[in-house]
Amino acid sequence: MNIPFYNAAREYAVYKDEFDAAIATVISSGAFILGRQVDEFEEDVMTYTSAKYAVGVASGSDALVVASDILEFRNDAEVITPVFTFFASASCIARLGGKPVFCDVDEDTFCMDMQDAENRITKHTKGILPVHLFLQMADMNHCMELAEKYRLLVLEDAAEGFGMKCLYQGVYKHAGTIGDFGIFSFFPTKTLGGYGDGGMIVTNDKDLYLKAKSYRVHGSTIPHHHDYIGYNSRLDTLQAAILQVKLSNIDKVIEKRSRHAAQYREQLKDIAGVKIPLVKDGKKEVNYAFCIQVEKRDALEVFLKEKGIGTSVYYPVPMHLQKCFAYLRYKRGDFPIAEHLCETVLALPMFPELTEDEVSYVCESIKEFYIR
Ligand SMILES: Cc1ncc(COP(=O)(O)O)c(C=O)c1O
User: Which terminal residue of the chain, N or C, has fewer Cβ atoms less than 10 Å from its own Cβ?
Assistant: First the structure.
């Protein structure tokens, strides 16, 4: 068998007519920059997530930078973020001169350890940037308690979190809609992924929304009149049209992903050397990535590759050991859980069109590796 880690072509084959029609509509209209599909898709995301406002931008990374700029994460302002995440969750703080302050993560869920975060709060702390990682949201109840207690701004990195929810003050809330700002990535592998880069900023605050909308077009509301030094970061109209098709099928996609995850859980549960991720109570999971913790990870990865199975390591190097953050003067050993995860995590193939036989083959191959 040949099982890719991720494959977009299978989905295209299923919905080809819808995608082709959406793309042709944009091209024939000639309205490529902030065309009507961007507005419509923003409305669709607001409806799906219950966010009051949404602003489409060029990528999840840009969404983080724009939101960090508006929240004034600069001039050495400290912002706490997990050390085990994708680079953009930390670079957005450092980009404008803020200081990323890393905290460790929970061993079972891989999400930010809020107790460790609290221990790192100082009088210079301005914000907290929780990341909703792989399949569940960070503990937003605890996060918002810290925000209130220490008067911190909250930027939720929900790049991976589309569709995830958590019980917050007795109600299920969508990822990205609890803090001051939330962001999504539409990178192709994401649960709601486009055919290229794309991202979105969401908020319930009108002033923040108006700023974000202006920041994405060079800080202007009237062409050639600039209230802020903004960016050129707009969600591409073709991507918005494609994403509208994708969003209309999102519940089916989430359901298919959870079927694969259930099968992985069932077939991997008795293998010594393999640890399966936990989902905490009060969380509605979405299986964006299915990451197991394994012994002899690198050898297993090679073995699976020889068997035709694509995997990925999310993430091999924690943020505090990245060369560009050496100036922050962290050292190996500072974040033992994250460091251990970086040596043991392995993401298995996860996309809606995987077949039951393919998931079985992956599980059987992992079994074979540990029995040998
Ligand atoms: C946690 C996290 N934050 C931020 C990003 C950045 O998103 P993008 O790739 O759309 O720039 C990603 C996606 O790769 C991510 O996984």
Answer: C
- The model's pTM is 0.98
Running along the chain, 372 residues long, what does each successive block of 10 average in pLDDT?
A: 95 96 98 97 98 98 98 97 98 97 96 98 98 97 98 98 96 98 98 98 98 98 96 98 98 98 97 94 95 97 98 97 98 98 98 98 98 88
Is residue 174 within 8 Å of 49, Cβ to Cβ? yes
Task: State in Å: Cα 88 to ligand 1 middle.
Answer: 6
Give residue 315's domain range: 250-371
Residue 219 and residue 130 share a domain: yes
Cα 162 to ligand 1 centre (Å): 12
Structural domain tally of the chain?
Answer: 2
Q: Which of 312, 314, 292 minimizes the C-alpha distance to 367?
A: 292
In a domain, 4, yes or no: no
Question: Domain containing 363 — which CATH number?
Answer: 3.90.1150.10
User: 65 CA distance to ligand 1 centroid (A)?
Assistant: 11
**Closest protein CA for atom 7 of ligand 1:** 60
3 to 10, 354, 360, 365: CA distances (angstroms): 12, 8, 11, 12
Same domain, 244 and 200: yes
